[in-house]
Write a structure and sequence with these properties.
Helix 3 runs parallel beside helix 4 and helix 6 crosses helix 7. This protein has 311 residues and is of the alpha/beta class. It contains ten helices and 14 strands. It has one domain: Ribokinase (UDP-N-acetylmuramoyl-L-alanine:D-glutamate ligase), CATH 3.40.1190.20.
Length: 311
């Protein structure tokens, strides 16, 4: 088995297409599209697209949980589900004719202690055959803030590297557990750092401060500006700039980056390759509608145009 991807708060993603979003007026939905979403599901989908063999572990409940399972089965995305009493959430994306988007994300179901215990037991079993563990997305209600730290400790005991993509209290409490790589965006990094980041030098300083805490890698996603990869212990400071494109959609671009980096780590490639593939794949994601995947040829074309620099 390849990477084990935990999606603790998955969702059905529903995109509503409208001519324009009008306040206090009736908005006519021109079309609706639904697919299996949430950060962890997106990462697993991208990993398979990049020729990995991911295994997805996720809690599902209610009618929307059945719908999610059906979507995953149609995609032939290997998944193990944990049954919940409460229903899986539905995230709504409203896209206007101009391409502007509004996003509405419910908090999702509340897990019981027994349901969380089942997730931990299944994680222990699946880690025995995993190449790495990817923890991506928000924590569900009913789970303590230190849940990711607990899962990282399980991975350490199994000798498995962990890649973490979350924010807020979940990130702060997971850092002492020392994940192999943490992937905040610029806003999430500043929130953890407790200071405004107003310059490239300040960004590097904040990323190195986080690396000092985790004793590992920190990858900061910067949207159109690419990404920064640092490791304080190894004295590595790398940045990457993508080829400039006009984005069609930005939903899931960060998940594409995480998946590409996880795949390169899995293959044993260099940090320069992690960064180059991550930025190229994240850029390629912006050229497709949400929930869709670009061609491998597009990713490779963009890969050749990524510029790597040592800071």
């Amino acid at each position: 088995m390849g990477a084990l991807v935990l999606a603790l708060n998955p969702s059905i993603d529903a995109e509503w297409r409208v001519t324009e979003a009008r306040w206090e007026e009736k908005n006519i939905i021109q079309s609706e599209r639904r697919w299996a979403g949430g950060k962890g599901v997106n990462v697993a989908r991208w990993l398979r697209h990049l020729r990995g063999e991911p295994r997805l572990l996720l809690p599902l409940g209610g009618i929307t949980g059945w719908e999610m399972a059906a979507h995953l089965q149609r995609e032939r995305l290997p998944a193990k589900s944990i049954a919940l009493r409460e229903a899986t959430r539905v995230n709504v994306i409203i896209t206007t004719a101009e391409g502007r988007q509004l996003r509405f994300n419910p908090r999702g179901p509340k897990l019981t202690g027994a349901e969380w215990g089942e997730i931990l037991r299944e994680t222990r079993q699946l880690l025995k055959r995993a190449s790495c563990l990817v923890l991506s997305g928000s924590l569900p209600r009913g789970v303590k803030a230190g849940a990711y730290a607990e899962l990282i400790c399980l991975a350490h005991r199994a000798g498995v590297k962990t890649i973490l993509d979350c924010d807020g209290e979940a990130l702060a409490t997971a850092i002492p557990a020392r994940p192999f790589l943490v992937k905040p965006n610029e806003h999430e990094l500043a929130e953890w750092y407790g200071k405004t980041i107003s310059s490239p030098a300040g960004l590097v300083t904040a990323a190195l401060a986080l690396s000092a805490k985790t004793k590992g890698w920190v990858l900061v996603s910067l949207g159109r500006r690419g990404a920064l990869l640092v490791n304080r212990k190894l004295k590595v400071k790398l940045s990457a700039r993508p080829h400039r494109v006009n984005p069609v959609n930005t939903v899931g671009a960060g998940d594409a980056l995480v998946a590409a980096v996880a795949r390169q780590v899995e293959l044993g490639n260099s940090p320069e390759d992690w960064l180059r593939w991550g930025v190229a794949t994240g850029t390629a994601a912006t050229q497709c509608a949400a929930g869709k995947l670009p061609s491998a040829s597009l990713i490779r074309r963009l890969l050749k145009k990524v510029k790597i620099a040592s800071n």
